[in-house]
Amino acid sequence: HLLLRQEEGVVVITMNRPEVLNAFNDAMLQELTEAVEEAAKSDDVRCLVLTGAGRAFGSGQDLSAFASAQHNAEAQPVSEHLKKYHRLLSLIREMPKPVIAAIRGVAAGISCNVALSCDLRIAADNARFIEAFARIGLVPDGGGGYFLPRLIGLGKALEMAMLTDEVSGPEAERIGLVNKCVPLAEFETETMALAKRLAQGPTRTYGLIKQLMYQSLDCDLPSALELEGRLQDAAKATADHREGVNAFLQKRRPHYSGK
Ligand code: LHQ
Description:
Order of helices and strands: EEHEHHEEHEEHHEHEHHHH
Bound molecules: ligand LHQ
CATH architecture of the largest domain: Alpha-Beta Complex
């Protein structure tokens, strides 16, 4: 249920169930988790792009698969089912390399929140972000309650979660839900340009930047400053730091190895 391709240090993972707008069933979720885990481990991968096949990014949990599973007398609690998504979210946040969500068309429910777990988001101008959960009487899961207020502030987060109105690509850019919104015709080119630019960057430093930003959100200033010191010691020890300084002094472009 996935398409995978790799070029110039970028791995593109495409969720591929276009007939249901790439709704998650168990198989696709498991394959995606494995593909992300593989990309996290591989030294050849220096940037990961997550996107959807066809006209959508994703429509959330596959509701027909989920409804039939719930009719089973031994159906497990939703919280157990969610643990599989939580593993994916943690992998994305903790992998020491940049992850981009590239959103074309609809991103609803847990698919929207998987996109929010990524480090950067690029949207096509036909993107539609929908925190659809309350439409079916559910709370935002897949980290929605955590990611949304941190990205767009509490007021907008509550608005998206309670009213469940669609947020367009341009509006998503305006409120900081995505980093960039581009015309649909330029979406693939722009996505690959951004991904390749990151894949040529100081990968280990990007991993440290993720740690710095994500951990700083949840700690006090003294702890954040202590963390900054530790991470800067680690960044200072990278070959890419030495290369960056040398390139500056020699007035040339740096060639980062990602080490
Ligand atoms: C779908 C789906 C879908 C199956 C479109 N499933 N077929 C919940 C429970 C438990 C644990 C984990 O977490 C969750 C979290 C969640 O993600 S809850 C939220 C689940 N998602 C939704 O509630 C969204 C449901 N879909 C929609 O509201 C619409 O399809 C949207 C607004 C996404 C797109 O609308 P349209 O562009 O008008 O497309 P469409 O509705 O015509 O959909 C195309 C096809 O895809 C259609 O099938 P058909 O056979 O009629 O062509 C849909 O039934 C199917 N599809 N989403 N989640």
